[in-house]
Write a structure and sequence with these properties.
about 30% helix; Spore Coat Polysaccharide Biosynthesis Protein SpsA, Chain A; alpha/beta; 4-stranded mixed sheet; homodimer
Chain lengths: ~350, ~350
């Protein structure tokens, strides 16, 4: 059987002030009137039953996400006591799926990314599942639309064949977020795709890789697994998890795994990681302004005005970003949206928690 | 006796979004923790009894101003049914004062200007009152601190003498807001002062000038005056006022009046007419930022951040103006603050009255 694990543990710091600890990015209506999490669940509906969709999230986000996807069984929400990186998150999901179905095909998706071409997305999942059946760890690579420095890249090695029209390659190398020059070289070579963080594998295969490559974590995971379905589960998880080492699935597993393949695909994917990348998804007017909410402007161009109820008046602006929420406001020029992270860090340092 | 008429009928459009129809500039706490109107009353306290202070305002502003100056007798608030310019406003005040004391010295002040040196301000009023006793129409000229194009100018003619250390000159000419070049010439000549809109005269003299120069208005005024203290006053005023022609005191009276003198004085005066001129009154930090309200900034310089409760985060800004209120927000570069007027005009045209 085919199961999806939606990772929904992040906050989406760079979308502050809209994203907050108690209002994470996946719960926000950024595109198309639905929240990112709702989109993530919606786009699976044509191919999966609600019972096949699992969500890993944090205690504090559980309620808001359950409200947004009431069709999912409550038991399919897996609560991670605290975030330890993608490897532990996926491991925790894997033992739940493994108990459900030891032969499960596990699809790992994210709750806060955008996919324009959802039909093609579902097609590639079906193809990837066939490849995964054979024991491969499949990563979805995104055909780059620009030499982005904001994503990791995967180098395609030799061809493994074609499944349902999708080319499958050995994954030769996982590259971190590159410099602009490196990004340009990689994109021009045609041999790289963006690392979307979406994976498809047999659940027994990923557990095997955890055992081989992260043996300490595997022991911790086994300790939790032994309590699944008992009253000992939650106390054990709460005791074990703080001791789990932080690790990403890329570093911890994928780079050293056997039989890793990549299927490059063009599905209009974006991680919506910052106000800059969200801007690319929203419609602009003739003056290249993107306006959300009440606005009155004089001589304003190439500006993102992302508001709610309040009126935003702009005069003589070009290339600015204005994000207005009920209790906080951001103003910065385009090109410096990444520094929102530094604002959030400053607020953390100054313990101005009301705005975090 | 010496009486003050504080004109408090304006809105202060260029301080939008802080100033609104129901929250006029004079009722705002812009400088020093008190409202502009409270400052206007406070600075008279050392020389006047509350009974000597009259206020002309509009129905809709009456309550808020009365709350801010509870020491003033309620009858001293004169309600103008609608604003018809400074000449009718002063005329209406004049008939009230004339009834109170036909020999009154009438001092006309504004409710929404800033005066740093209040002691010297009171000294010049005392000196001006002596000059006014002799039948002169006295204008307070402000020694220019810069070649501002935002103020009207008064040209000093021949010297009339010195009163209590203040030089008194014939007012030779009233000049409108000048071009930058003209402003520079005028300031460099040393012969011009800014027209502050503050006047001192005998009430009988100003009524005489109304009669001579604005005879139609004088008849209308006389009709209202005849009903003062009777139940016919309000209906008469409400009937007559909409027919009164709009006129400023400068055009309608001062330019053609006899015995007009100017006393130039340096009292740290500002009309606080825009976010630019308010900025000059507020303390700046080492990076030349003026910050009011919660703020977190990265690489922000020479910027006005005028907020209330909400957090304003700024990244990479130089020379910007950000004004944040409960239901509306303004973002513009320094130097374009005057265009706020156009924003308000646009809102009027679009009947977005909730933000007016």
């Amino acid at each position: 059987m085919f199961y999806v694990l939606i990772m929904a543990g992040g906050v989406g710091t760079r979308l502050w002030p809209l994203s907050r600890r108690d209002r994470p990015k996946q719960s926000l209506r950024l595109v198309g009137g639905r929240t990112m999490f709702e989109h993530a669940v919606d786009r699976l509906a044509p191919i999966l039953q609600p019972e096949q969709i699992f969500v890993v999230t944090r205690t504090e986000h559980m309620k808001i996400l359950a409200t947004q996807a009431p069709e999912l069984p409550p038991d399919n929400f897996i609560v991670e006591p605290e975030g330890r990186g993608t490897a532990p998150c996926i491991g925790l999901g894997a033992i739940h799926l493994h108990r459900q179905d030891p032969e499960a095909i596990m699809v790992v998706l994210t709750a806060d990314h955008f996919i324009a071409d959802t039909a093609r997305f579902r097609q590639v999942l079906a193809a990837a599942a066939q490849v995964a059946e054979e024991g491969h760890l499949v990563t979805l690579g995104i055909t780059p639309s620009s030499p982005s420095t904001g994503y990791g890249y995967i180098k395609q090695g030799e061809s493994v064949g074609t499944v349902e029209g999708f080319s499958v390659f050995r994954a030769e190398r996982f590259a971190e977020k590159p410099s602009p020059e490196t990004a340009l070289h990689m994109v021009e070579s045609g041999e790289y795709s963006w690392n979307s963080g979406m994976f498809i594998w047999r659940v027994d295969r990923i557990l095997e890789e955890f055992q081989r490559q992260m043996p300490e974590f595997y022991v911790q995971l086994a300790e939790v697994e032994a309590t699944l379905g008992t009253s000992g589960y939650e106390p054990t998880l709460s005791r074990v998890w703080p001791q789990v080492a932080r690790q990403t699935i890329d570093y911890g597993v994928m780079e050293g795994a056997e039989n890793v393949v990549v299927i490059p695909v063009d599905i209009g994917w974006s991680d919506v990681g910052s106000w800059a990348s969200l801007s690319e998804l929203l419609p602009a007017d003739e003056e290249r302004n993107i306006i959300v909410g009440p606005h009155v402007g004089i001589d304003t161009r190439d500006t993102l005005v992302f508001g709610e109820e309040r009126l935003i008046a702009t005069i003589g602006l070009e290339g600015m970003v204005i994000v207005d929420t009920e209790d906080a406001l951001l103003v910065c020029p385009r090109g410096r949206e990444q520094e929102v992270r530094a604002i959030v860090r400053r607020l953390e340092e100054d313990r101005r928690t009301e705005w975090l």
